[in-house]
Write a structure and sequence with these properties.
It is built from 20 helices and 19 strands. The chain has helices at residues 12-22, 63-73, 92-102, 141-146, 158-166, 188-206, 209-224, 232-257, 299-307, 330-336, 353-363, 382-392, 433-438, 452-457, 468-479, 503-512, 514-521, 532-551, 555-561, 581-597, and strands at 3-8, 33-37, 53-57, 78-83, 87-88, 108-115, 136-140, 172-182, 289-295, 317-323, 342-346, 368-371, 377-378, 398-413, 416-426, 447-450, 490-500, 527-531, 576-580. The strands form three sheets. Strands 9, 10, 11, 12, 13, 14, 15, 16 and 17 form a nine-stranded mixed sheet that branches. The protein has an eight-stranded mixed sheet with strand order 3-2-1-4-7-6-8-5.
C-alpha cells in the first residue's frame, strides 16, 4: 500500500527524531511523499537522496491550519500523521499495513506508543477504538478532508474532536503491533487546564444544551477547587471567558450537524474508559507462557474470546482449552484456530470448574501461566506487560494487574449476541492480604504466576462450586513472593471481566457465592505468617478508606450493605504472627466498625 507521510515538528530536534525512524522504511521511501510541517530542508537533508519527494509547509500559523494545508498536498489514499517526537520502530510499518489490509473499511488507524501508551480502552477482539492519537495515526485522505480536517479551536483534545467527526464515515481501529517510541512526559498542568476548557467546547459542539450546561457547572467547580498547580484559578477563569467567545461557533456546528453524531460523541470524563498508564519496555527474554481457558457448552462464546489472542503483541504463548464435560468445541477449534499454538481437552463428564482449571495448569508447558475464561478478554499488551514486570522483578512468583469491568447483557450464546451497557476500570489503590481475605480482588484474568507455584501450593479447590479461584490466589499469596505486598503490580486494566448488567441478576449471583465464601475463608489450612508492621499497615488502609467514604458521602450506604461473616479483634504480638484467612476477615470488619464510629 502507498501513503504520504505528514511530519509535524516544532524544531530541528523533533524533525531529526522522525528522520531516524523513517529511515527504517529503507527502499520503500523511494515511493513516498514526505510532507514536513515546522521543519526546514536542513533538518531533513539525510532523506533527500532516498525519499521519493519532500515538501514543506513552513508557517507560523496555528498548527491545525498547517497540518490541514499539509494534508491537502497528499496524493495517496492514506495519510500517515507523525509527530516529529515519535520514532517509528523497526516493525511499525509492516504491522500497520497488515492491520489496514485486515480492516479496509476503517477510516482511521491509531498506532501504539511505547514504552507508555495513552491508556484508552479499545475492543480487544475487533480493535475498535473511540478516538485515536493523531501524533501517530493513519487516515483516509478523502474522509479527513470531507470532515473538515482539524479544528483550530482545539489543542489537547484536537484528536477527540476529529475522531468523532471521522466516525461518521466508519470505524477507527487501534494497531497494537505498530508502535512508535516516545518517552517524553506530558505537561500535566497544560493538559489539566486546557483539557478542562476544551471539554466545554466539545460539549457545546456535539452535545445537547443540557450536556453543555452540566459541563459549565463542572468547570466552575473546577475553578473553585482546582488541582494544585501554580496560577491555576486565574488561567481557568481566563479560559472560561474565552469559551463564551467560541461557544457561538460550536453551537452553529451543533445546529447544523448535531443529529449526525448521536451515538458517536461520548461525554464520559475521559471520552472513553481509561485503562491507566504504565511503563513497559522491551523484553530481553522470550519464555513460553500458557494461557488456560475453561469452557462449558459455549462454543460461540469461546470462539469470540479466543479471537482476542491473535492481537497479543507477545507471540511465544500456548493456549490450553479445557472443556468441563462433553466435547462441543473441539472441531471448531481445529478448523478456526489451527494457526494458534492451541491444545484442547474435554473431560467427558462434568468435573467442576475447580478441577477443569487444575487440569489446564497441569497441561501447561509454559514457565508462566495465566487464565482466560471463555467470556473474558485480554488486551493486546497483557502478556508483554506481565512478563516485563517479572523480568524487572525476577524474585516475584505472582504479578497482579487491574481489570476493566464490563456490565453486559447476553442476548444469545449461539449465535453469540451481547451488548455492553458500561465499561469502567477497576484499579485498586491497594491489594493487601487483608483485602484479599475480605473480597477476591483478583478475577481469573487478573494475575500471571510462575508454573512452579501450582506444584508447591496446589491450585483451585475442587470440592466447592464457587470461589475455587479465590482459594487458589490466597494459597499463592501465602507461599509465593510478590513485588509489593501492599499494591497491585500493574495499575492498568489489562483484561476485561464481564458480569451481568441487570442489577437483580448480579445481586443474586453474589448471594449465591455466600455459602462458598464461608467454606473457603474458614478453611483452617489457609494460614499466613505476617509481621506486626504489615498488620499495622492494614489498619492504616482501613482507616483511610473509611475517611474517604465519609468525605465522599458514601459511608452510610457502605455500612448498610455490609454482611460480615464475623467481627473480632485480632490479637497479635510484635514479630511474626500466624493467622488464618477467617481471622483476617473478621478483623477487617472489626476495624471498619471501629473507625466508622470514630468519624
Amino acid at each position: 500500500m502507498k501513503y504520504d507521510i505528514v511530519v509535524y515538528s516544532s524544531g530541528s530536534r523533533g524533525a531529526w527524531t522522525a528522520v531516524q525512524g523513517l529511515e527504517s522504511l529503507g527502499e520503500r521511501l523511494k515511493d513516498m511523499h514526505l510532507i514536513f510541517c515546522g521543519a526546514d530542508g536542513a533538518d531533513t537533508r539525510r532523506l533527500n537522496r532516498t525519499a521519493g519527494k519532500i515538501s514543506f509547509c513552513l508557517s507560523s500559523e496555528n498548527p491545525a491550519q498547517s497540518l490541514n494545508r499539509a494534508a491537502a498536498l497528499a496524493q495517496t489514499e492514506y495519510i500517515l500523521f507523525l509527530n516529529g517526537d515519535r520514532r517509528p520502530c523497526k516493525e511499525t510499518f509492516a504491522q500497520l499495513e497488515h492491520t489496514v489490509r485486515k480492516y479496509p473499511q476503517a477510516v482511521g488507524f491509531g498506532l501504539a506508543v511505547c514504552p507508555v501508551e495513552s491508556g484508552v480502552h479499545y475492543d480487544p477482539v475487533e480493535l475498535t477504538v473511540s478516538h485515536i492519537d493523531f501524533d501517530c495515526a493513519l487516515v483516509k485522505k478523502q474522509r479527513f478532508l470531507q470532515c473538515g480536517g482539524f479544528d483550530c479551536a482545539f489543542d489537547v483534545l484536537r484528536d477527540v474532536d476529529i475522531s468523532w467527526r471521522l466516525r461518521r464515515f466508519g470505524v477507527l481501529k487501534y494497531c497494537p503491533g505498530a508502535a512508535v517510541a516516545y518517552e517524553k512526559a506530558e505537561d500535566e498542568k497544560c493538559r489539566y487546564i486546557r483539557g478542562g476548557y476544551e471539554k466545554l467546547l466539545l460539549a457545546r459542539k456535539f452535545g445537547t444544551k443540557g450536556t453543555a450546561a452540566k459541563r459549565i457547572k463542572e468547570y466552575i467547580r473546577m475553578i473553585k477547587t482546582p488541582r494544585h498547580f501554580p496560577s491555576v484559578r486565574k488561567e481557568l477563569a481566563a479560559l472560561l471567558a474565552e469559551y463564551f467567545l467560541k461557544a457561538p461557533a460550536m453551537a452553529a456546528f451543533n445546529r447544523k450537524n448535531g443529529s449526525l453524531y448521536k451515538g458517536i460523541a461520548d461525554f464520559q470524563p475521559g471520552f472513553a474508559p481509561r485503562r491507566g498508564q504504565i511503563y513497559c519496555g522491551r523484553l530481553t527474554e522470550n519464555p513460553l507462557v500458557s494461557v488456560v481457558v475453561r469452557t462449558h457448552k459455549r462454543k460461540e462464546v469461546l470462539r469470540h474470546t479466543l479471537s482476542c489472542l491473535y492481537n497479543q503483541t507477545y507471540k511465544n504463548f500456548e493456549v490450553v482449552v479445557v472443556e468441563d464435560g462433553q466435547d462441543t468445541a473441539g472441531e471448531m477449534i481445529k478448523s478456526d484456530f489451527s494457526d494458534l499454538n492451541i491444545r484442547y481437552f474435554s473431560t467427558g463428564e462434568n468435573v467442576g470448574r475447580g478441577r477443569a482449571g487444575n487440569i489446564g495448569i497441569e497441561m501447561a508447558k509454559g514457565e508462566f501461566v495465566c487464565f482466560l475464561d471463555d467470556d473474558d478478554y485480554l488486551y493486546a499488551d497483557y502478556i508483554a506487560a506481565h512478563l516485563y514486570c517479572f523480568e524487572k522483578n525476577p524474585e516475584s512468583d505472582l504479578v497482579i494487574s487491574s481489570i476493566m469491568a464490563a456490565k453486559t447483557d447476553t442476548i444469545s450464546t449461539d449465535p453469540y449476541i451481547f451488548s455492553v451497557k458500561e465499561y469502567y476500570p477497576v484499579i485498586f489503590d491497594h491489594i493487601t492480604l487483608m483485602d484479599m481475605c475480605v473480597k477476591c480482588r483478583i478475577p481469573m484474568t487478573g494475575a500471571m504466576f510462575r508454573r512452579h507455584l501450582y506444584d508447591e501450593c496446589g491450585g483451585m479447590r475442587e470440592d466447592i462450586g464457587g470461589d475455587e479461584d479465590w482459594a487458589m490466589w490466597l494459597k499463592f499469596m501465602a507461599k509465593g513472593k510478590r513485588t509489593d505486598v501492599y499494591h497491585c503490580d500493574i495499575p492498568r486494566a489489562m483484561s476485561i471481566f464481564q458480569y451481568p448488567a441487570d442489577e437483580a441478576a448480579a445481586k443474586k449471583r453474589l448471594e449465591g457465592y455466600r455459602i462458598f465464601d464461608r467454606q473457603m475463608l474458614y478453611d483452617e489450612n489457609l494460614v499466613f505468617t505476617v509481621d506486626e508492621k504489615e498488620i499495622q499497615q492494614w489498619e492504616e488502609y482501613v482507616k483511610a478508606d473509611m475517611r474517604h467514604l465519609k468525605n465522599t458521602g458514601r459511608l452510610e450506604s457502605f455500612m448498610q450493605d455490609l454482611s460480615p461473616l464475623g467481627c473480632r479483634k485480632l490479637e497479635y504480638v510484635p514479630g511474626k504472627n500466624t493467622v488464618t484467612a477467617g481471622q483476617i476477615n473478621s478483623y477487617y470488619y472489626y476495624l471498619v466498625k471501629l473507625y466508622a464510629e470514630g468519624l
